[in-house]
Amino acid sequence: MKKLISLVAIMGVLFLGTTQVSFAQDAKKDTAKTETVDSAKADTSAATQVTPAGDEVVAETSFHQVLKEKFIQGGAGWMTPILIVLVLGLALVIERLIYLSMSRTNTEKLIQKVEEALQTNDVEGAKDVCRNTRGPVASVFYQGLDRFNEGIENIEKAVVSYGGVQMGRLESNLSWIGLFIALAPMLGFLGTVVGMVQAFDDIEKAGDISPTIVAGGMKVALITTVFGLIVAIILQVMYNYILSLIEKLVNEMEDGTISFMDIIFRAQNTKKQ
Q: What is the pLDDT of residues 38-71, one digit of tens each?
């Protein structure tokens, strides 16, 4: 339920960000108009300084207009699903990046604190250290310390089992991101095929293979594929970046677990003596 709420919140932030950008562009247009009126009343030097700012506004507006025109040319029925895939994919990417950033911890410092507590036979103190430290490494250590009096074999089983659980949590929602990566170009290709069929229908109705009809229909049909591939490329780059973060966390967890088991083994031998 918490993940669902966080995803809805992230999607809301993305949509609000888009709305704020449009409002900002409108504000820039109004500012440009005001500056133009003021420059007409001012001297020639002031008018010369306002001109570059006006060029920037025109450039930004033209890019926005081109993007909007291409979206309309591709057809809202096909471009909207691709846009939804992009928004959902980015929402999951942001959720994973936030979760992974919160999962990072200073493993060496954690191991040092646990070792200092166990050297004085303070198992509860070591558990408190792990309980107050965020991240999968601390959670795995806590499960091992919770079974400190059950023998080294049970501790090792608990550490291995809970380590697998933590790896599953790190890789959560990656399958959905992979689905969106595959779905975006598929929707684009589907829109292209449908657009090609419509283009051939127009040729059949015209009764003439005119280059204008063919080129116009082909251009509109291929726009959906272009947008679908762009969305897939963006999500694929972020997907690989998330995988690299997970791999780094897993390596830290494995190295920390080995050091933790050595500390537990020494503490168990000291307790027996």
A: 443 444 343 344 444 444 444 446 767 776 776 6
In contact, 146 and 127? CB cutoff 8 Å: yes
Whether the Cβ atoms of residue 86 and residue 234 lie closer than 8 Å to each other: yes
- pTM for this structure? 0.69
Angle between helices 123-131 and 136-146 (to 10 degrees): 150
CA distance 220 to 223: 5
Do residues 181 and 89 make contact, with C-beta atoms less than 8 angstroms apart? yes
Position 65, amino acid: Q
The backbone region for 77, taken as left when phi is positive above 0, alpha when psi lies in -120 to 50, beta otherwise, is alpha
User: What is the C-alpha to C-alpha distance for residues 210 and 196, in angstroms, rounded to an integer?
Assistant: 15
pLDDT digits (tens, 9 = 90+) for 18-44: 444 443 444 444 444 444 434 434 443
Phi, psi for residue 205 in degrees, rounded to 5: -70, -40
Q: Structural domain boundaries of the chain?
A: 1-73, 75-273
The encoded tokens of residue 6 equal 């966080």
Read off the DSSP letter of residue 208: S
Burial level of 267, CB count in 10 A (0-12/13-18/19+)?
Answer: buried
Candidates 3, 201, 230; CA nearest to 99 is 3
DSSP states along 136-198: HHHHHHHHHHHTGGG-HHHHHHHHHHHHHHHHHHHTTTHHHHHHHHHHHHHHHHHHHHHHHHH
Q: Which residue has the tokens 């550490």?
A: 159
